């Protein structure tokens, strides 16, 4: 059954969301050949917007519809595959001779195609009157905030102010891609999701890849009727049009169902990308359909980028500080060992450092069948048994597990005493080890809705769940995972201890000789 579920989740990731063949109808789209600027594809809804049959536009010069001089100027600034569009806030468009309507225009190139998107015209003064002052406040306050939650809280409050969405939240993905809501700004009447965990399967992998590159997307009305592109295949490439960077890209019907299940008709999400990884999202919802102008989207994208930089700087700082602290402790330990001319004596002398170094509850050192312990550990017999088990798999320099019952299933007595273990071998010849232990930490996860594991009969893919009511899961048998900094610290300690052991051996040999 678990296998079937994994396959259903994988199938979600097969949906080619970059080539849906249609757009959201709150604007219209033209694909134009270069350099002739002739219409190659048009969305069917030009009929509704302009009163023109899409088919009658195909092959026509763009100049029949609009003055192309400004477009040509915009194109000059665009590189061959430029996802940052050029933008004109007021383009008058209509068949030559007829009265024109004014639209905002976005143009970008992707995979050799020039894509023009038209949305309702905006007020260009909006940026100066409202957006810039809001951004300035945001950036000024950001500089004063240190804590991650405070940074995120500031960002969601500002995005809510700029956009007017009813609920805005910031969430971070964990190592398994589940997302925990860290901050939320919400109008009365909306359920709060603060602190809840959204499962990884809510956003399949191909969507995460896309969101890493295209930082913002808007779904104006989850009940929309998609407008197909005509013809379906691009005449130049013979392939469906890649809409990865089109603002109007039609979104996955599965996700639209998810939104309706959640009681949201409009959404916008802004990617938080840190070191090329999708770190999290700012996700906005509204119970009613809602439009977001290009200027507002751009302000939000910029805000997201600034937030990402700030989080990255904060993470780097924390990491650097932790590495420094760890190095201090390693030096402390090594000098105690060197002073006493014995690794075991050094270990015995500084129990707080031994434990603090790894954030462990207990530690043991095994050398020559002797076992010394500090803190809270399993009994000696179990530790020696563990050392033997470790000895049978000598290839790993550091062994670590945050779930002994899963990773060392043949030692149930050990798992009864602790849940996490990290070990380094401290001799090249013998089964000598330094081992740290961590207690179980019973973990409660507040999921946003109980998993329903519904599999769609037609597609074989997972269906979105219907309830987002808090559902608590209790996880047993896990310790706090050993993080990369500690594991690398342990490796460093290992190398240094091996050096001490070696030097001692040489001294002994000299004495004997
Ligand atoms: C996309 N799913 C998304 C997006 C979000 C979520 C934010 C991005 C699109 C958007 O901006 O609305 C889910 N919404 C959430 C989460 C929170 C939230 C996690 O508010 C947390 C706070 N969805 C499912 C299942 C499938 C699925 C089972 O629940 C797979 C079959 C698919 N979700 C799915 C797809 C997309 C998506 C395909 C991409 C939509 C697109 O961009 O076309």
Automatic annotation (TrEMBL):
Record-annotated Phytochrome chromophore attachment site domain positions: 147-305
Cellular component GO terms held in the UniProt record: plasma membrane
Keywords linked to the UniProt accession: Chromophore, Kinase, Phosphoprotein, Photoreceptor protein, Receptor, Sensory transduction, Transferase
Catalytic activity: ATP + protein L-histidine = ADP + protein N-phospho-L-histidine
EC number: 2.7.13.3
GO biological process, alphabetically ordered: detection of visible light; osmosensory signaling via phosphorelay pathway; regulation of DNA-templated transcription
Official protein name in the record: histidine kinase
Native source organism of the sequence: Stutzerimonas kunmingensis
Top-level taxonomy: Bacteria, Pseudomonadati, Pseudomonadota, Gammaproteobacteria, Pseudomonadales
Residues of the full protein shown: 5 to 517 of 756
């Amino acid at each position: 059954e678990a296998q079937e579920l994994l396959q259903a989740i994988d199938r979600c990731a097969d949906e080619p969301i970059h080539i849906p063949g249609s757009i959201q109808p709150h604007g219209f789209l033209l694909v134009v050949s270069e350099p002739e600027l002739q219409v190659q594809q048009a969305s069917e809804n030009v009929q509704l917007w302009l009163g023109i049959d899409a088919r009658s536009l195909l092959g026509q010069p763009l100049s029949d519809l609009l003055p192309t001089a400004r477009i040509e100027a915009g194109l000059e600034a665009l590189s061959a595959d430029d996802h940052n569009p050029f933008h004109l806030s007021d383009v008058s468009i209509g068949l030559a001779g007829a009265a024109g309507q004014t639209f905002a225009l976005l143009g970008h190139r992707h995979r050799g195609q020039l894509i023009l998107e038209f949305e309702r015209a905006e007020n260009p003064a909006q940026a100066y009157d409202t957006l810039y002052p809001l951004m300035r406040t945001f950036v000024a306050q950001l500089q004063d905030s240190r804590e991650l939650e405070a940074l995120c809280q500031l960002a969601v409050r500002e995005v809510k102010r700029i956009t007017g969405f009813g609920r805005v939240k910031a969430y971070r993905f964990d190592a398994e891609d589940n997302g925990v809501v860290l901050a939320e700004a919400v109008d009365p009447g909306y359920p709060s999701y603060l602190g809840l965990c959204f499962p990884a399967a809510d956003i399949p992998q191909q969507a995460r890849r896309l969101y890493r590159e295209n930082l913002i997307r808007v779904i104006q009305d989850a009940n929309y009727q998609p407008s197909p592109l005509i013809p379906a295949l691009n005449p130049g490439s013979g392939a469906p049009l890649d809409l990865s960077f089109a603002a109007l890209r039609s979104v996955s019907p599965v996700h639209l169902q998810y939104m309706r299940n959640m009681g949201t008709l409009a959404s916008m999400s802004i990617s938080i990308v840190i070191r090329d990884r999708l770190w999290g999202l700012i996700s906005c919802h509204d119970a009613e359909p809602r439009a977001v102008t290009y200027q507002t989207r751009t302000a939000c994208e910029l805000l997201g980028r600034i937030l990402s930089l700030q989080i990255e700087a904060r993470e780097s700082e924390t990491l650097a500080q932790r590495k420094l602290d760890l190095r201090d402790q390693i030096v402390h330990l090594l000098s105690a060992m060197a002073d006493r001319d014995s690794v075991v004596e050094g270990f015995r002398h500084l129990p707080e450092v031994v434990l603090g170094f790894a954030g462990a509850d207990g530690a043991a050192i095994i050398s020559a069948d002797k076992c010394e312990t500090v803190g809270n550990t399993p009994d000696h017999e179990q530790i020696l048994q563990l050392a033997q088990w470790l000895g049978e798999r000598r290839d790993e320099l550091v062994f670590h597990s945050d779930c002994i019952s899963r990773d060392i299933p043949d030692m149930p007595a050990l798992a009864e005493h602790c849940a996490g273990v990290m070990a380094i071998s401290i001799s090249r010849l013998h089964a000598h080890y330094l081992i740290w232990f961590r207690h179980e930490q019973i973990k409660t996860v507040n999921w946003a809705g109980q998993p329903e594991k519904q599999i769609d009969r037609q597609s074989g893919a997972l269906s979105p769940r219907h309830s987002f009511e808090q559902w608590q899961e209790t996880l047993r048998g896990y310790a706090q995972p050993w993080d990369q900094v500690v594991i690398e610290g342990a490796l460093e300690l290992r190398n240094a201890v091996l050096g001490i052991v070696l030097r001692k051996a040489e001294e002994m040999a000299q004495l004997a000789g």
